[in-house]
Prior knowledge:
- There is one protein chain.
- This protein is mainly α.
- The protein has one domain (5-183): Winged helix-like DNA-binding domain superfamily/Winged helix DNA-binding domain (Arc Repressor Mutant, subunit A), CATH 1.10.10.10.
- Helices cover 58% and strands 10% of the residues.
- It has helices spanning 5-10, 16-26, 31-38, 42-54, 76-94, 98-101, 106-114, 120-127, 132-144, 166-169, 172-183; strands at residues 58-60, 72-74, 148-153, 159-164.
- Strands 1-2 form a two-stranded antiparallel ribbon. The chain has a two-stranded antiparallel ribbon with strand order 3-4.
- Helix 2 (16-26) crosses helix 5 (76-94) and helix 7 (106-114) packs across helix 8 (120-127).
- The longest helix is centred in the middle third of the chain and has 19 residues, at 76-94.
Amino acid sequence: MPNNQSLNLVFTRRWAVPILAQLASTNGCKFVTLRNSLDGSRASIKASLELLDTLDLVRSNTGHGHPLRPEYLLTTKGVLISKPAAALVSSLIKAKAFEQGLKKWSMPIVLAIKSGSNRFSAISNYLDQATDRAVSTSLNELQKASIIQRELIDGRPPYNSYLLTRKALFFCPILDDMRQAMNG
Length: 184
């Protein structure tokens, strides 16, 4: 199993992936531009930027200069992940799953199921830092959004198995590209 910890961290903040997507299309921008285009709160955009800075994906544009000079730029590593991040945002919008897809554990759960972790305990182990309640809640929300489906497997005892739907299969290659960029 590849190291997913760093990619899972990207999804811990709601606006991190959309910020990467925005920076990919604009080659850097100001905080106010990010806030207005993403329609997020000041605090949540700032927390997402701090996370991306910590992960060495985004950096502040130091120094003074022209008022139109961008405040935030992608790092070399950020450039690699920003293109698949933009593709993910676009795919989530097309699938009408934007809000659900960018919740903290949604895409990491899709990766877990894709890797063969299709029982609750295996998904929970794959995510490492997610609580059982967070995994359960996310699985229910992903099921409602038709990103995953749950099957009851008859046995002793019966158990649930989680599978990706056709909708989720569009996200998988993009998530693989993001994981490769983070681990590359």
